[in-house]
Design goal:
The complex is a heterodimer. Chain A is built from 1 helix and no strands. By secondary structure, chain A is mostly helical. Chain A is rod-shaped, with a radius of gyration of 9 Å. The model of chain A has no long low-confidence stretch (mean pLDDT about 90). Chain B is mainly alpha-helical. Chain B contains 4 helices and no strands. Chain B is globular. Chain B starts with a helix and ends in a 13-residue tail after the last helix. In chain B, about 20% of the residues are buried. The chains are: A mainly alpha, B mainly alpha. The interface between A and B is medium-sized, with 15 and 21 residues.
């Protein structure tokens, strides 16, 4: 994947969304 | 510079606090990131949606740019 930092942000956002 | 999970959490907090009175915008941002994660949209697609969502919030745009790969950035109008 060409955008590792964006993938990281997306992963954190997914966890955050699941927790709220 | 390599951004860490803490930087991502901090950025998400910044967005959430900014739109505390309009949580729909924060949720839209989370949706955009989910669509990117599931590969429904690519990096230019994310850039397009985020630049519209955070229009008028140059600090949020600059913060988001830090997560973009080399060669990609959202222009902030001066």
């Amino acid at each position: 994947l060409p955008a590792p930092q964006l993938v990281m942000l997306a992963n954190v956002a997914a966890v955050t969304a699941a927790e709220s | 510079q390599k951004l860490k999970v803490e930087d991502a959490l901090s950025y998400l907090d910044q967005v959430k606090i900014r739109f505390a009175n309009d949580p729909g915008i924060y949720n839209k941002f989370l949706d955009i990131m989910k669509e990117f994660k599931s590969q429904s949209i690519d990096t230019p697609g994310v850039i397009n949606r985020v630049s519209q969502l955070f229009h008028g919030h140059p600090d949020l745009v600059l913060g988001f740019n830090a997560f973009l790969p080399p060669g990609y950035r959202i222009e902030v109008p001066k």
